[in-house]
Amino acid sequence: MNRFTDRIVMITGAASGIGRATAQRFAAEGARVAISDMNAEGLEGTLALLDGSGHHSMTLDVSDPAACRAAVSTVVAQFGRLDVLCNVAGIAFLKHLADVSESDWHRMIGVNLSGTFFLCQAAMPHLLESKGNIVNIASTAGLGGQAYNAAYCASKGGVLLLTKALAVEFAARGVRVNAVCPGGVKTPLAAGIRMPEGADPTLVSKLFPLIDSADPSEIAAAVAYLASDEARFITGEGLTIDGGQTAS
Ligand SMILES: NC(=O)c1ccc[n+]([C@@H]2O[C@H](COP(=O)([O-])OP(=O)(O)OC[C@H]3O[C@@H](n4cnc5c(N)ncnc54)[C@H](O)[C@@H]3O)[C@@H](O)[C@H]2O)c1
After folding, report:
1. Edge to edge, what strands does the sheet with 238-241 contain?
2. How much distance in Å is there from the Cα of 103 to the middle of ligand 1?
């Protein structure tokens, strides 16, 4: 498939996991991608994996609103347009409520929710010009409450409703805004998550997929579908991809 020939796709969190796989998928389908992440070394690794040429790579801390605005300006200055924004950068931890510090909370909301908001805001004028679209990465944690995960759930629930609010506001002006809600994807983020000491196993028994965890490329495939013209009639959707985790 070559659904993104000559399209410009900006992807955050592209140094690793789902973001890297998303960059690979878009590049494989003909896009020129503008990849960003805090992890410069990981970005270099992603760049080396991409099909095609003319891609752009930049370091970006999405929790800095001014840096988000500057990053979008850089992409538009470099390529002259923006067709798709994918907000993938994210962090996660599990903690008892009492152990979530002020800085834990602000970091979680700053990266996962505020970063997504400020990039959507900065990108929107350019997406209105290109009749482009946004795909945000929410989570099954944005669909229902999870023990020891209050800050992450709040951030991802916020991403999902931010997605829907923007979809409503901009549908008639030709910009679609969607999200995917993954659960159980084999990435460094998932591998690094530990249950807090003293966690009640009965409260977390439904946090796992019913089948083998997903490869990041399986999430990237859904992101690419939502961003493609094949999904013209889909906006305001949070597509759950979780191996049945939330089915019951
Ligand atoms: N892995 C899963 O099971 C799973 C499930 C649901 C949702 N998600 C979401 O998918 C997204 C990607 O996560 P992943 O699993 O691929 O993890 P990952 O750790 O492999 O990738 C996350 C990337 O985000 C980058 N990042 C973190 N903070 C940043 C910041 N402030 N600015 C810019 N980049 C930053 C990291 O450097 C990393 O490269 C996240 O939003 C995560 O919440 C993951």
Report:
1. 56-59, 32-37, 8-11, 84-87, 133-137, 176-182, 238-241
2. 18
